[in-house]
Every structure is written in structure tokens, then in C-alpha cells.
Amino acid sequence: MDYFEVEIFGEEAIQKLIHGSSSMEEIPKIQNTLMGDPASEIGIVIQHGFVGTNIEMMYIANEIAKKGYRVCIPLLPGHGVNYQAMNDFSFEDWIAKTKEGIEVLRSEKKGRRIILGGHSIGGCISLLISTQDDGIEGVFTMATPTRYHYIIRKIGLMMYKFIPRLRIKYRPFIFYDKSFKKHPYVKFLNENYGSVNVHVLGQVLKLMDHVYESIDEVTVPVRIIVSPKDRTIPKKSAYRLYKNIKSTEKSLTYVYKAYHLITIDEDRDKVATSVIEFLANFN
């Protein structure tokens, strides 16, 4: 359970993170990450999504940390290596890792208040944990899916049962900001996660089913951030989340210059602004 401290980025480091560099060595390492003030009364766990890593969360985490919060980004089991490494883990392992991040922040400072955030299935995990842990005070989701259509789920789960090792193409790495095509991190994703086994897609479907079944138990304040141009998650995901959660304090933010990876795409600053506005409610 090693978590590595990362200093708040200056402008030069941000430029390398977002606009790329000559190699992966010039951007932050793929690892469990801590940022911000260790004495902060509020801790934020930000969970990356499927086949993602902490790199995709670093810009948002950095903006949050600059406001004085303590931020933790757990690296989900099997992620940050290649598609084969994911086959040894289940969605329960992913949930456990996010819970580990929560405990890291709590053990660091007694009485620390905890808010969860997540991108894609990281948002699913955050919503689910909020129904299990009374100490979670709020959740923000970014490009988070709801359940797929019954037919898609049925076919997917049948494939998971009978042909779990089948490899299928997986290409969610498209950007409104076309400069990302040459980014070394995007190259890393395309080389190592251009296809995935049905087994891990089945884990995603099972996780989404669990969230769907408990979504009406979500009562903490929630901020939902999404792009209408997102081609990866089911259509109307944000609307369905907004409609079905029972929180009395809930809000929906749309960004338009982004696809699925809204945390680093062109409208990343608007995503960060929305998250920071949401967090200000807890100060």
C-alpha cells in the first residue's frame, strides 16, 4: 500500500502533462498518488476509470490541491500495465482499492472529512461507496455511465460466462483536442489497451449493475459532470443519474469541448472549475 507524494505542479509541469513531451519519463509516474496539504481538514479521493490511471486525474487533482485540499488518487488493481494484467482482478478489487484510498486519508489525519470523485467507472465506485460509508460527505462524477441497454448487458454477460478470454478491440481514446494524438501517454494507452478481454468488460457490467441497484440509496450531495459528445458511456447517463439519486442537493454540469476523457480534454478547466465550486460547499 505505497502512496507517493507529488508536489503541486507549476506551469511548466502542467504544460508537459497536458501537451505532452518526448517520452513518458517527462510526465508523472503511474502510481498511487497523494497531493496537497497533509493538514487539510478535507480529503478528496479521486478515482480514475476503466483502463485509466492517475495520469488522467492529475490535472483535476492539481487544481483541487492548489485550493488547500488533500487529494488521493488510488491506482486500480491491474491498471497501468497492460490489458493482460487486468484479468486477475474483479470489480470488488477495484472497490476495495478506492476504500483503501479513503483509509489512507483518514489515517493521515484524525477526523478528516471525506469527499469522493471519479471518472467513468471511478464515479460508479464513488457513488456505490457513498451508500455504504456514512462518513462520505459528497460525490462528484465525471463522464460516469449508467446501465447499458438490457440486450447489450445480456450479450456481454453471456460472453463473460462462456468466452471470458476472447479479446475485443477497445478504443475510447479520442479527443476534442487533437494535439493529444501525439501525447506519449495516449500512445501508451493505445499500445497496451487497444484491446481487452471479455472478462474485464464483464466486471464493468457487473459493477454498473450494482450501482444501478443501489442508486436510489445515494443521499449525499452530488455534482454530475458530463459531455454530450461522449461516445463511450450510454446516452442519457447523466440524466438518469440525476433523476434516480435521492440526494436533495444535486447538480448537473455539461462541457462541450471534450469526449469521454473530460478530465484532460480541451474543457478540462471547466471540469476543474465545476468540481472546485462543488467542493466549496463543504468549507
Largest sheet: 8 strands, mixed
Radius of gyration: 17 Å
CATH superfamily: Alpha/Beta hydrolase fold, catalytic domain
Order of helices and strands: EHEEHEHEHEHEHEHEHEH
Walk me through what this model shows.
The protein is an alpha/beta fold and 283 residues long. The chain has a single domain (4-280), classed as Rossmann fold (3-Layer(aba) Sandwich), CATH 3.40.50.1820. Helices cover 37% and strands 16% of the residues. It is built from nine helices and ten strands. It has helices spanning 11-19, 58-65, 91-108, 121-130, 150-162, 184-193, 198-214, 237-244, 268-280; strands spanning 4-5, 33-36, 42-47, 70-73, 113-119, 136-142, 167-169, 195-197, 222-226, 250-254. The strands form two sheets. Strands 1-2-4-3-5-6-9-10 form an eight-stranded mixed sheet, with helices on both faces. The chain has a two-stranded antiparallel ribbon with strand order 7-8. The longest helix is centred in the middle third of the chain and has 18 residues, at 91-108. The protein is globular.
What tags apply to this protein structure?
single chain, 283 residues, alpha/beta, Rossmann fold, eight-stranded mixed β-sheet, two-stranded antiparallel sheet, 9 helices, 10 strands
Topology (SSEs and partners):
Layout: E1 4-5, H1 11-19, E2 33-36, E3 42-47, H2 58-65, E4 70-73, H3 91-108, E5 113-119, H4 121-130, E6 136-142, H5 150-162, E7 167-169, H6 184-193, E8 195-197, H7 198-214, E9 222-226, H8 237-244, E10 250-254, H9 268-280
Parallel strand pairs: 1-2, 3-4, 3-5, 5-6, 6-9, 9-10
Antiparallel strand pairs: 2-4, 7-8
Helix pairs in contact: 2-9, 4-7, 5-7
